[in-house]
Amino acid sequence: MTVAVQKILLHICCAPCSIYTIDHLRSEGFEPHGFFYNPNIHPYQEYRRRLDTLVEHAANTNLPLTVRDEYDLEGYLTGAVQRLEDRCQYCYETRLRPAAQEAAEKGYEIFGTTLLISPYQDQEALRRIGNQLAQEYGIAFYDQDLRPGFREGQKRARELGLYLQPYCGCIFSERDRYAKKG
Ligand code: SF4
Question: Which structural domain, as residue segments, surrounds residue 133?
Fold first, then answer.
C-alpha cells in the first residue's frame, strides 16, 4: 500500500527541539524540510553554536535543511525594544514570516515550527500568528500542540550529545536566566 506523503516546511529553532517534532511529523505522513532563520539568538557565538549543531544534526539524520543565515541584530533589537511588553510575539512573527514566505514561494501547502514543542513558549500566540501568516500566504499552518514530546526530545538530544542551550535566545532571556541566579 502506498502512503501519501505531504511535504511540510518546518521552521527549526534548534536541533534538540527538532528531534521529536520531526519524528512526530513523519509518523503522521509528512516529509519535513527544515528551515533555519533565528536572528533572535544572542550573542553571535551562541547563534553560531546553535546553527552549527543543527547543520551537523541535519546532515547526520538526512534532513534537508535550508539555512537563512542572516543576522540582522540591529533590525531585530530595534523591533524588540519597540515592543518590549510583547516582544515574544514580535519575535515569533519575525521568524515565522520568512518561513511562511519561503513555503509559499517553494510550493509547500503547509508550514510549521518546532517552537510548538516548547513549554516555555506562548502556544496561543504561536498558533494565532502562524495561522494568520498561513492565511496571508495562502497556505496552512501545522498548529498541533507538540509539548507532550518535549521531555523525550530533550532526553534524546542529551543521548546524542547535542548542545542544549540554557536560555531561550534573546539578550533579555539571557539576562532573565542568569540574573535570577544571582
Ligand atoms: S524570550 Fe525567546 S521568544 Fe521571547 S523574544 Fe526572547 S528569544 Fe524571542
Answer: 6-179
50 lines ligand 1 (CB under 6 A): no
Closest Cα to atom 2, ligand 1: which residue?
168
168 Cα nearest atom in ligand 1: 2
How many angstroms separate the CA atoms of 40 and 105, rounded?
24
How many domains does the structure of the chain reveal? 1
- Find the DSSP H helices in the chain: 15-27, 44-60, 73-82, 87-105, 123-137, 150-159, 171-179
pTM exceeds 0.85 for this model: yes
- Binding site membership of 91 for ligand 1 (Cβ less than 6 Å): yes
Interval between CA 173 and ligand 1 midpoint (Å): 6
Residue 144: which CATH number? 3.40.50.620
User: Quick check: CB of 76 below 6 Å from ligand 1?
Assistant: no
Residue-by-residue pLDDT tens, the chain, 182 positions: 555 789 999 999 999 999 999 999 999 999 999 999 999 999 999 999 999 999 999 999 999 999 999 999 999 999 999 999 999 999 999 999 999 999 999 999 999 999 999 999 999 999 999 999 999 999 999 999 999 999 999 999 999 999 999 999 999 999 999 996 55
